Amino acid sequence: MHGLLEILRGAQTQTGGVFVLSALLIIGFVLIARRIGPESPLAPHILPFAGIMIVVPATMFLGITKVIDSNAVSAILASIVAYFFASRTPQPPSN
Questions:
Q1: How many CB atoms are located within 10 Å of the residue 21 CB?
Q2: pTM for the full model?
Q3: Blockwise average pLDDT, block size 10, the chain, 95 residues
Q4: Contact indicator for 26, 54 with CB cutoff of 8 Å
């Protein structure tokens, strides 16, 4: 219980909040990804989503600690969004 209180107390800072949010994103992704079987239509997309789930929290953490500036954070997030939309192939209309 003492460890949980320390995490909650540390989450009130910017860096701690980003750390807790990052941990929740990664844990949530792992829990969801474990349920997706090979026959699922989402199976081919697990690896790109795994990369995004690592890059986005790392970018948030590096941005909040001022290791990289806000322009670099914006560029990284924009490239992730561009990749996400460019990698989706349109389905041909069914007749």
A1: 15
A2: 0.66
A3: 64 74 86 88 84 86 85 90 76 62
A4: yes
